[in-house]
Amino acid sequence: MTTIQQPGRDTSRWLRSYYFLRAGVSVGWVAAAFTIGKAVPPAAAALLVAYPAWDAVANVVDARRSGGLAANPSQALNAAASTVVTIGVAVALGSGLHAVLAVFGVWAILSGLLQLATGVRRWQAGAQWAMALSGAQSALAGTHFIVKANGAATPGITDVAPYAAFGAFYFLVSAVWLTVAQARKGATQRTA
Q1: Model confidence over 83-114: pLDDT tens digits?
Q2: pLDDT of residue 126
Q3: Which of 28, 71, 90, 160 has the most CB atoms in a 10 Å sphere around its CB?
Q4: Nearest to residue 110, comparing CAs of 70, 83, 148, 149?
Q5: Could you tell me the pTM of the whole model?
Q6: Whole-angstrom Cα distance, residue 172 to residue 175?
Q7: Which helix (H) or strand (E) holds 17?
């Protein structure tokens, strides 16, 4: 198992901030999806393209902060996949929302498995059980997206929003878990 390049305390602080940021962006995306995205089709299209684009950027930033892309192959692959999916979603929008949901399904499976791998690799950093669980659930959600994309009902952005909401939940759980662990560790060190 490969470990992160940074010292444990710095890694934990970075991941806590990073997970809070990821949760916040996801909550904002979900709110936008259920409000403006639901009512304004061009806004929904922009949000659907922005979601994997943000994931690509976030994976690159995290990997660079955690020792570089070469030291974090699952994140490098996840960033590459998210970049391809960003383009794929933009192209699929021309074919309809069934095609978009299918692209999201494939991406959710792949990115979920890569997130699971990242969580396992980072296990020593703490709070990675939530990231691993999120990755596994993402892969299952991707399968659901593909099935729904082949159905008769017309999908929309609100079919993707719960997926993003669960992602926000897992990022928030990890951030809070790391915050509590750091506070406990600080209290223990002060009393020692």
Answers
A1: 999 999 999 999 999 999 999 999 999 999 99
A2: 81
A3: 160
A4: 83
A5: 0.88
A6: 5
A7: helix 8-32
Does residue 6 have a pLDDT over 50? Answer: no
| 101 vs 60: CA distance, rounded Å | 24
Residue with tokens 């009902």: 153
- Say which DSSP state 68 is in: -
Alpha helices, DSSP H, located in 38-94: 38-39, 41-65, 73-92
Please, which contacts does 24-30 make with residues 24 or more away whose CB atoms are closer than 8 Å? 24/168, 25/54, 25/58, 26/164, 26/165, 26/167, 26/168, 26/171, 27/165, 27/168, 29/54, 29/161, 29/164, 30/161, 30/164, 30/165, 30/168
Lowest mean pLDDT among 25-34, 63-72, 103-112: 63-72
CB of 141 within 8 A of CB of 166? yes
Distance CA 72, CA 88 (A): 24
Q: Do you know the residue count of the chain? A: 192
Tokens of 189: 């060190």
- Gap between the Cα atoms of 73 and 60, Å rounded: 11
